[in-house]
Write a structure and sequence with these properties.
The protein is mostly helical. It has one helix spanning about 1-25. The protein has one helix and no strands. The longest helix has 23 residues, at about 1-25. About 0% of the residues are buried.
Length: about 45
């Protein structure tokens, strides 16, 4: 029973950590402008 309480407690702490990181962590991608010339066949 003691081991089950420990596992549940650790799962709750891990879940709270993941939610906190998702809300507070900087997960936005870095944006950079890339220009590539394109050759079109035709007129």
């Amino acid at each position: 029973m003691r081991m089950l309480k420990l596992v549940v407690f650790l799962l709750l702490i891990a879940g709270a950590g993941m939610v906190g990181f998702a809300y507070l962590g900087d997960l936005s991608p870095q944006r950079t402008e890339i220009r590539i010339p394109v050759d079109l066949d035709g007129s």
